[in-house]
Design brief:
Order of helices and strands: EEEHEHEHEHEEEHE
Strand content: 15-25%
Oligomer: single chain
Number of helices: 5
Largest sheet: 5 strands, mixed
Radius of gyration: 15 Å
Number of strands: 10
Shape: globular
Strand order of the largest sheet: 6-5-4-8-9
Length: about 190
């Protein structure tokens, strides 16, 4: 279980648009269609990663708590399913349905969306404001598998509450990177 952190890139970049299949509905969905009125949380997750499994109930709770407040959540899996079959779309659909995901679970087969967002790990989180500018790239909270801190979503909740209150967000220097399993790039894939 090698730990890979979120890439440290400057905040303020505009969310690249995408259109990916929703593994539950079978329809193509775009960022433009799924974005939130007040904010959009993009989560690169997968089925097999122990870091994701550890925080999944907290992610579902976050979605349930904030969606009605104008904040939308989008989960994307970009892993190589040939070498990690547990992350295949049919397994993604099973997980989304068994956990009652209150957000879409999209499959990035080409891995182009992960690359466009500089995603490095699962889970990898980015929060975008109402103009789709990145205001947060960091951890859910201090919880990790085996450290005896229960997942609460504390760090992301603080950011989302600050957005809802219309207050100034913490600087990038105050944001702790997420840590998880590295994204499983396809053989021969070179990240530029």
């Amino acid at each position: 279980m090698a730990a890979t952190p979120t890439e440290n890139i400057p905040l303020g970049f505009e969310a690249p648009d995408f259109s990916l299949p929703n593994v539950v509905t079978g329809t193509q969905q775009s960022l433009t269609e799924l974005r939130g009125e007040k904010a959009t949380v993009l989560m690169f997750i997968c089925n097999h990663c122990p870091f994701v499994k550890h925080v999944l109930p907290a992610l579902v709770q976050l979605g349930e708590d904030y969606t009605a407040k104008g904040i939308k959540f989008i989960a994307i899996s970009s892993n190589d399913v040939e070498n990690y079959p547990e992350d295949a779309p049919d397994k993604m659909r099973e997980l989304a349905m068994s956990m009652n995901f209150p957000f879409p679970y999209l499959y990035d087969e080409s891995q182009a969306v992960a690359k466009a967002y500089s995603a490095a790990c699962t889970p990898d989180f980015a929060i975008f404001d109402q103009d789709l500018r990145c205001v947060y790239r960091g951890q859910l909270d201090d919880s990790r598998p085996g450290n005896n801190i229960p997942p609460s979503g504390k760090d992301m909740r603080q950011v989302l509450d600050t957005i809802l209150q219309g207050k100034a967000l913490p600087p990038a220097s105050a944001q702790k990177p997420s840590i998880g399993c590295g994204i499983k790039w396809k053989k021969g894939y070179k990240k530029e």
